[in-house]
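FORM 7B: Structural annotation worksheet

SECTION A. Query
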Amino acid sequence: MPSDQFEFAAEETPLIPASDGHSATWKVLLVDDDPDIHNVTRLALAGLAHADRPLELHSAESAEQAGEMLRQTLYAVALIDVVMESDEAGLDLVRYIRETLNEGRTRLIIRTGQAGLAPAWDTVRDFDINGYEEKSFQTATRLKTAVLTALRSFEQICALEKAQRRIAAHTAGLRDILDALSDMAGDNDLPAAEQRMLSELSRLVTGGQASVLVQGGSAVIVDHGREPEPLKVIAASGAFDLANRVGISALPPSATELITRCLRDGADSSHANYYCTYSESATGNPRVFLVHADAAQHELDRELVQLFCRNASLARDAIALNVDLERSQEDIVLLISEAVEARSMETGHHVQRVGAYSQVIAQRLGVSEEDAKILRMASPLHDLGKIAIADAILKKPGKLTAEERTEMEKHPEIGAAILSGQDRPVLQAAKIISLQHQEKWDGTGYPYGLAGDDIHIFAQITAIADVFDAISSERCYKAAWPLERCFEFLKEQRGRHFGPAVVDAFFDSMDDIIAIRDALQDH
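SECTION B. Predicted structure
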């Protein structure tokens, strides 16, 4: 199209002044096969700016060239001629942008000098465009108005998409936070849980799943305790990792000052470098979570940090309580087991050794860490039923009569009956062990004559641990067997008294078993 058909009329309105040195720009693409159109358009848009950001004009002289440029760069606005390589080259470019590139953000303004080939109503109706201009009627003001309107629309679309991404990221972050806290609450390894607490916080805020950003994965948890000094570092990560070993003195002075202020005021606090959120333990001990300021630039960011940290504090209290309950449960189990063994003239360390042996054998067999721990706590109760056996039988130094043997062989069922109705995993396991620990792999045991894998693995493991400790330990009525004789006996009983896999696991764990035996010797 001749350029003389696209001359702007004189106007009195001055141009918008150029931005004063702002580095960001709005990229605008001019698509036209007439170089004069590019020149006159650049002249008309000279100095136009929006939100203190000037235009950065790019030129394409064909639809094909424009398509290549649009594949590489996001443009805020594209001014597209209709007739270029073909009568509908510009309209084909619109389809390509919207359908092939799937780019819905760029604002597309059709400009044509041959309206008959692309009627306004048909073009606006049939194509996803944001403006239609006939070159012969367009003035500089009209062009600037169209471009400025398109820029505002582009800016709003981008802002909306950013907000949607932030909402999606925060939703995902919240989901991960709840999952992490749930997992941590079931973990009874308090030091590991504390460090995982920090790892989860760092992962969530640096992994792109949430916008709560902790720069470099750096975070620290400080427990104030009831006394103002000293501050106790519970766990730290990233740039603050040294505080795990050195303590509060490893933190930068500005961080320590902020922590002190946060604890003094009992409220969240921040400055240029760090953000502190305040929480309290179940017992009222003040706690502070410190993160870099980048983690809390926005209100929603701060709310997520607060949510995680305060719930993590509750999770830590729950873990500590679980640890205390577990230790109390284990202590009670050992006391009961030792009382039973004392009646039958065994030593207190016997049940501890049986529990420890059972755990390492279970681990060698591939039993989960949690189940191996349960077995360690439950196996000392294997002879609980002996509490109901008369002393005359239980403490008889000589061989039992047939009637006495029948009475003694009731102790597995008695122990299981005592433990019936308990829903705690340790006591449920103890019931199974009590009932089956006298069964033998070849079916010659009691009380039911179970054989092979019909015997629960917990009972199989406890049986070999119990027998080994009994024959390798000194009693008031017998001397300890030498270890070599003990080992020969266990090998002889492979496939008879004991399951082959359990015997193999015992010998594979020999170093650990001997170490336990040495550490828990009778005195």
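SECTION C. Observations
The chain has a mean pLDDT of 80. Residues 197 and 312 are 7 Å apart (CA to CA).

SECTION D. Sign-off
Analyst initials: ____
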